[in-house]
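Reader question, answered in our methods column.
A reader sent in the components of a multi-part assembly and asked whether the whole thing could be modeled at once rather than chain by chain. We filled in our standard form and ran it. Here is what they sent:
COMPLEX SIZE: three components
ENTRIES:
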Amino acid sequence: MKPLLQVRDISKFYGARLGCRDVGFDLYPGEVMGIVGESGSGKSTLLGCLAGQLAPDTGEVLFDTRGEGPRDTLKMSEPERRMLARTDWAFVHQHAREGLRMGVSAGGNVGERLMAVGARHYGDIRDQAIDWLGRVEISEDRVDDKPTAFSGGMQQRLQIARNLVTGPRLVFMDEPTGGLDVSVQARLLDLLRGLVREMGLSAIIVTHDLAVVRLLADRLMVMKDGHVVETGLTDQVLDDPQHGYTQLLVSSVLQV
Amino acid sequence: MYVAVKGGERAIDNAHAWLAEERRGDTSVAELSTSQIREQLALAVNRVMAEGSLYDPDLAALAIKQARGDLIEAIFLIRAYRTTLPRLGASEPVETAKMACDRRISATFKDAPGGQVLGPTFDYTHRLLDFKLAAEGETPQAPEAEPAGGPTPHITGFLNREGVIQSEPEGDEIPPDLTREPMELPANRSLRLQSLSRGDEGFILSMAYSTQRGYARNHAFVGELRIGAVAVEMEVPELGFAIEIGEITLTECETVNQFTGSKTEPAQFTRGYGLVFGQTERKAISMALVDRALRWKELGEEDQGAPAQDEEFVLMHADNIQATGFLEHIKLPHYVDFQSELELVRKLRREAQATSMPEAAE
Amino acid sequence: MTDQSYNFAYLDEQTKRMIRRAILKGLAIPGYQVPFASREMPMPYGWGTGGVQVSAATLMPDDTFKVIDQGADDTTNAVSIRKFFEKTAGVATTEETEKATVIQTRHRIPETPLHEDQVLVYQVPIPEPLRFLEPRETETRKMHSLEEYGLMHVKLYEDISQHGAIATSYAYPVKVEGRYVMDPSPIPKFDNPKMADCPAIQLFGAGREQRIYALPPYSRVVSLDFEDHPFDPSKADHPCDLCGAEDSYLDEVITDDAGGRMFVCSDTDYCRARREAGHVGAQAPAMKEGAGA
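And here is the structure of the entire assembly that came back:
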C-alpha cells in the first residue's frame, strides 16, 4: 500500500527561534496520526506546515493526489493548493468560529463545500446538509439557524460536518476538543471515533490531551521543543513510554 | 391621470440658473474677487490645491468662488480641470532640505542648526473671536528679520548620522502615478504617500487620531515640521540639464516614532512622512502618522487589526471626490431597482400568505 | 457647437488610447475586470464617470449617441450626460434605440433588440459581484483568478432557505463564457437574458472603482441559479397602461392619494414608438392617442 502522505525533513524557524525541526513520517490511508506535546512544543507549527498554511524552511510534504500520484504540496501553485484544500483535504480548527461562516445558516455552512465543487441542485444540497447534521447529532429543524445560535459543542460538530461532507481523503485537526466542557468533549470524541471508523478517515490530530489520541489515534508522535522525541503505536507509547518526557506526560495524566 | 416624468432638461437649466443667483447672494453686498479669496482665504486655497492635486492658487480661488465655499466641491472642480491638462513631463524631486522655511519646528530637539522658526501659526493664539476683524481696518505690519542664511538641514538627518533612526533606502525607481495608473494593491509606499497626500484632510486626520488613541499606536513625535518655498526643477531634453521652472510652497512633516529592535538588530527609531502642497500642517502631520501606521508589515510589527493599519481600507476610502460622488449618487433615480425589489417583496409575501392559509383554515 | 477648449469627447487622445486598450483587453477576456486609470471627470463619481469615459473613448464623430437612465432618455442624469457629449464631441444624438450607434445606459437594457452596429455602454457602480460577500479587493481578485465561486452560490442558497426564492432582483450575477462571474450592473434581472447572445458589443465602465469589463458580441451569459430553482426573469404581471406592451419592463407610478396606480414602460422610447404605431393601453390619455395617430 502506498502512503497517502509522506513528510520529509520539515523544519521551520521564526527568525532565530525554532518552530520545529527535521520532522518526517508516513501516513497510510485509513490511519490516524496523533501529535502530542505541550504548548510551544512545535506541534501546531508542524500542522500548519503540513496543511499548507505555513511555509517551512526545509522539507517536503508529498501527498498522493488522485490525478498525478505523490506531489510535493509545498511546491504546488496556490490555485492547486486551494483546490486541494476544498476537495481532498479538510481542516478542523480548535475554535469553531475560525472554521465556520458565522453569518451563514448551518445548511449553508455544510453546503458550501458541495457548491464549491459544483453542486447545483438546491434540494440535493439541502438533503445532504440535513443528512450530515444528523450524523453529527444536530436535529433537522436547526438547518436554517445560524451558528451564532448554537452552543460551543454544536458549533464544533457543525464544523466537522462542514468539513467531512465532501468525503475528504485527509483531515487535519487542531485541538478539536480544546475549549469545550469535559462532558461535551466526551460526546464529541465519541462522535469523532464513530466517524473515523465508519468513513475510514485518514487524519492528523494535534492535541495536548492524551485522552483524545488514546481514543482516536493509531500512531503517536510526541514533540518537545520543536523535536520529535518519541514515536510508535498509540497503546505502545502510552502504556510503555520510553522517553523521559513522554513518561512525565503520561504519568501527569494518570495522576489526574 | 398620469403625468410623464418629462421636462428634465428644462428643470436642470432652471436649477442651474437659480444656483448662479444664489452663488452671487445679495447683490447689494460687494462681489468677492478671486484675488481676495486667494489672498485672504489662503488656507482654504491651500487645501483645495492639496486635495485637488494641482498647484495653482488662482484656479483654486476660482473653484472656491464657483463652489460657494464648499471645499470638496471646489476640489472636485480642480480635479476635473486637471484631467484635461496634457502631461508634458515630470519634475526632478524637490529638495526640501533647501526649502526657504517660513516655519520650521522640532518637538524632539530644543534647538538645532537652522533654529526653531514659528512662522505664521495659529498655535499659541487664544481662540477668541476677534471682533476687530468684523470692522474694517488696516492690519499693523509684522516685524521683520533677516532670513537665516544657508540651508536648513533635516532634523532626522542628525539622528540618521548616529544610526538611531531607521534609514530610508535610496531609490531611483520611478514612483507609480496614482492619477495615471489604476491603484494596485498591495500598494508600495510611494503610492500610499501619494494617496494620503491628496486624501481628504478629515479622513486622514481621523485615521491619525485613531492611532494616537491606541488603534495601532506608534508613539509619534514631530521630529520636524517645515513650511516654505522650494524650487521646482525640470530637465528639458533639448538642454540636457535641469532648469528651475517655478517655486511652490510645501508643508513637510517627519515624525520620529517608536523604536523597534531585536536580539540581532539594535534598537532604532522609525519614521513617518508627510508632504503636502501649501501651508497645510494638520494634513501633513496626520499623513505622517498614517504613513507610519501603514508600514507595520515592512517593520515587522504585529497586525493589530486597527483601521489605520489596513492599507486597503485607508487607500480605498481616503479620496473625498470618490466618496462624495458615490455617496451622493443615491440621490439619482433608482426606480428600476426599487421596482424589482418591490415586486419581489410582494411575490414573497403572496407566497408566504398562500402557504400559511391552509393552516389558518383548519 | 463643439467647445473648442476641450479635445473631442473631452478626454485627451492619450487617455482615450489607454481606455481603448483596457476595452480591448476586456473584450479579449469576457467578464474579466480590467483595471484602468480612471480619470476625474466633470461629473461626480457614482454618476456614470465610468460609462462616460468608455463612451468618450468609443465615440467617433459620425456616431449617433443615445443616453438612458432607468430606461428613459429624459431623466435628469441622462439629459446631463447627453448634453455633455453634445457639447464636447458635437456628435448627433437620438432617443431612438434603432438609430443610435452608441448607447450609454444606467440600470436598463433597451427593449428594442440591439444589432451588430451598436455598442451598449453600461454605467457600473460596484463592478465586483463578490463584493458584498468579501469586502477585500485583494481577496476577491484571488477568488476570480482561482475560480472560487462557491460563496456566490452560498448566498443564493441562503436566499432560498430564507425566502423560498432567490431574493436578488437586480444586479443579478451572471457567469460569462463559463469562466468569470460578472456583475451586470444594477439592471433588473428581467434584462439579464438580453445580455446573452447579443449582437451588439457590451462595455461596462466603473469609474470610481477603476474597472472596465466587456462582453463581445454573441457571448454566452448565464444567470446563476440552481437546477431546481432556475433563474426567473419575471417582472410585474401587467401590460403597459399607455401602450399595452406585455413584454416590456414596467415602472409603477402612483397617480393619486387614494392608492391609484398605473404601470408604464420604463423604456420611454419603446413606449413612444408603440403608441405612435397605434398601440393603446388601458389608461392611455385621449390626447396622446390623437397625437399618435
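What stands out: Residues 13-28 of chain C form the longest helix (16 residues). The mean pLDDT of chain C is 91.
Send us your own complexes using the same form.
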